[in-house]
Structures are given as C-alpha cells and as structure tokens.
Design goal:
Layout lengths: L1 H23 L4 H25 L19 H24 L2 H9 L1 H13 L5 H22 L9 H26 L2 H24 L14 H21 L5 H9 L1 H12 L5 H21 L2
Helix pairs in contact: 1-9, 1-10, 1-11, 2-8, 2-9, 3-7, 3-8, 4-11, 4-12, 5-7, 6-12, 10-12
Length: 299
C-alpha cells in the first residue's frame, strides 16, 4: 500500500512542475510564487483552526495538527526560509528554461543531499553509492553538452545557475526535513512551514515586486497558479504518509517519488513542443538510473 502512495506522490509532483511552467510562461514570477504558496497555506488553515479549537473532532485522524510550543516555531521558520529561497531560484529558472532541461537537473537532488549528509553527518558512501554518484554525474555532464545544442551553456547561463542553486537549497531542505520529521509531527511541519512562507513572501511582493511591476513582465492570473500549491500539498502529504506506514522502505519511496520527473519531462515536451526530446530522454534515463542505484545503495 505504501508503494501506491509513493507512486501517487510522484504523479502529483510531476504534474506540479507542469503547472509551474504553464503559470510562469510570459508571466511575472514573484506573484505566481506568492499565490501558489498562499493556496498551500489556505488548504492547511481550516485544518489548523479545527485542530486548535476543536481537537477532539479530528485528533484521531491523519489530518490532526498537534500543538507546538511557540519557542519551537523557529525550526519551522528556518524550514520556510530555506524552501522560499529555493523556490525563488527555481521559479525564475523554470520560466526561462525548457522543462526538459529543468527536470533532469532537479533529478540530481539526491546526489547533493548525499554530499550534504557526508559533510554534516560524516556519513560514508558504500561502493554502490559511489557507483550511483558516478553514473549520475557522468550523465549530468553529457546533459550539459546536449544543452549547448539549444544555445544553453551550463557554465555561463544565469538560469542554469539558478536551477542548480534551487536544487542545492532543496537538498538542504531535504536534510533538514530528516531532523524535523524525527522531532515534530509531519502535519505540523507541512502546515506551519507553508504559513510562514506566505509571511516571508509578503514583503517581497509589497516592497520589491509591486513598486516596479510596470517595469517588468505584467502579472496574469491563471487557474494553473493555485494548482501549483494544491498539487504540491497533495504530493508532500502522500509522501510523508507513505513513509509513516509500517514496513515502508524509505529508499524505495524516494526512488519512486523521484521518478515524477519523467511525467514533467514527457508533458513538458508535448505541451511546450520542446526540442531534442529523444536525446534528452536517454540522458534523463541515465541520470535516473544513477539516482536509483544511489538510493537503493542507501538501503
């Protein structure tokens, strides 16, 4: 059963990336990010209010959000700060790069998470993990060569730097999640971090974007924008629920979830008529193969 939840999480996560591209094409980035984040917070707000004022009505359900002492909210705020920074970089990159370029780069996330674990937790790689790392980095290099055929030079393109920074910060968030989930309820982490993200983005919108909105790309409301927040909430909920079930294997769940990039790659190629799909598709398979070897080597 937990594997089905992991697959469902991958489907929602892959579709979430497509909604991002649909929302960001020829649109202002910061308000799209704000309204997507606001949607996520609005989803959790009624659950949070019911859990706070009428706890007996849902305290036995998987949606219950237990109280967290105010002094410990700093942990959630830090999570929000990392995620918001990652998303700002990622959203700008998604607007300016083909989705078939973004998806494979995002797929390398576990490599950077592993390197972070080595530096922070002094973890040691097994032979299988080294093989997975080498395969992923090799195909990532080949992928950078393929990008040149579309005029995208990985060493000089600003948006490539943005998507790499967004991916690195996402890996930092993943490492921090290990600490948070070990010490706090998963629903509390999801709900409060989403709410604090809105608080962080509000001054960005009011003081950075709004005064100069006429000088940049105008904002257009699209119904794909709230779908970003909705699909991400569902994807994360299914993921956290899957790892909470008895007998679940985190390495398998992580591998299944990472396969969601296949969905965003295929839909991105079809919907946005992107180039060199066959070549980039084979390279994506190579990157994913390396990631799978790495994740299963961590079992």
């Amino acid at each position: 059963m937990w594997a089905l939840f992991a697959v469902a999480s991958a489907v929602f996560l892959g579709t979430y990336d497509v909604f991002k591209k649909l929302s960001l094409n020829s649109n202002a980035v910061l308000p799209v990010l704000f309204f997507a984040t606001l949607t996520s917070a609005i989803i959790f707000l009624p659950i949070l209010l019911i859990s706070t004022f009428y706890p007996d009505s849902i305290n036995n359900s998987i949606l219950f959000i237990p109280p967290v002492p105010l002094a410990q909210h700093g942990y959630f705020f830090l999570k929000s700060l990392i995620v918001t920074s990652s998303w700002i970089f990622t959203f700008f990159a998604v607007k300016h790069l083909p989705l078939t370029i973004v998806s494979p780069i995002r797929a390398t996330g576990p490599i950077w998470t592993l390197f972070g674990a080595i530096l922070i937790f002094s973890e040691h790689l097994t032979i299988i993990q080294w093989i997975g790392t080498a395969v992923t980095l090799l195909f990532f290099y080949f992928f950078s060569l393929a990008g040149k055929s579309e005029g995208i030079h990985f060493s000089t393109n600003k948006w490539i730097v943005f998507i790499i920074l967004g991916t690195l910060l996402g890996s930092v968030s993943g490492l921090y999640d290990k600490f948070l989930i070990h010490n706090f309820d998963r629903m509390a982490v999801q709900a409060w971090s989403g709410i604090y993200q809105v608080g962080l983005l509000m001054p960005v919108i009011l003081f950075l974007w709004y005064p100069k909105r006429r000088e940049n790309t105008p904002f257009q409301w699209r119904w794909s924008i709230p779908m970003i927040g909705l699909f991400l909430v569902i994807a994360d909920f299914l993921y956290f629920y899957a790892i909470s079930l008895d007998g679940s294997l985190i390495s398998v769940i992580s591998a299944l979830r990472r396969s969601g990039v296949i969905i965003s790659f295929i839909l991105g190629g079809i919907l946005f008529h992107e180039k060199n799909l066959r070549q980039k598709g084979w390279l994506l398979i190579g990157i994913l193969a390396g990631v799978m070897i790495l994740l299963f080597g961590s079992k």
